[in-house]
Amino acid sequence: MTSTSPLARIVRGTGPGLLLAHGGTGSIEGNYGPILDGLAERHRVVGPDYPGSGRTPRASGPLDLDTLADQLVGTAVEEGLDTFAIAGYSLGGPVALRAATRHPERVTALVLTATFAHPSARMRLLVDDWLRQLRSGDEEATARWTALIGAGAPYLDRMTPEELATVIEGARASVPPGAIDQVELVGRIDVREDLGRIRVPTLVISTTLDAMATPYHHRQVADAIPGARLAELESGHLPFAEAPDAWLGLIRTFLDAQVGSDAQVRSGAQAQSGAQAQS
């Protein structure tokens, strides 16, 4: 992979590599911000922003999943990571899966949160409505729709009117220039054939109150990946806002186990090599 990645990125921490893939209409800071420091305590974290998000310019044409997956991997390699786990949230899940099947020599593990392999009929209705909202130009209505559909009911139900107004204003201010491009890509996603080709340890985190990518989608992903684990997180589609500490805990526990397993394999190989040398 010799081409330069056009993606702006956040790089933090030291340790085993961890590449982040954010959700549609999101960004690394927007989707992973509350847990970035926690992830960087144990990993060298590389978080690229998709075209039209963060500091990455909008693409000149429709987004392509293969190209996006290659660009994310290219960004990690540019930042000195030869191998790495990938944590994919929402749309970042299919991006991570495609990266793992296109670059199996680099990807060591997957953590897929609130994700999907292919939009169900219900999710297609939601995507169509989302695009209609974004194209309407009514930023207030779009922000209210996003808050209502994105957040879990218990999270919104506990809010005061002032807190809800703050959430809606945040949703209004955070829509990136590439939002329509990214939601259109959500509607085109189909990585069902990739699932059976995954050969690395995989954790699927099911956000159990999710009305966007529902638990139906999470189970579909977990059931089709050989050996995948499924963990449940009581949250809507916004775990970074609704349950950041629990989300971070699930990710770190899984990745720590993979690092420990890798160390055991290396130690065993060294011991075997030493025994052979003595004999």
From TrEMBL:
Start and end residues of each AB hydrolase-1 domain: 18-244
Signal peptide (UniProt feature, chain positions): none
Database matches in Pfam families: Abhydrolase_1
Record-given protein name: AB hydrolase-1 domain-containing protein
Organism this protein belongs to: Streptomyces rhizosphaericus
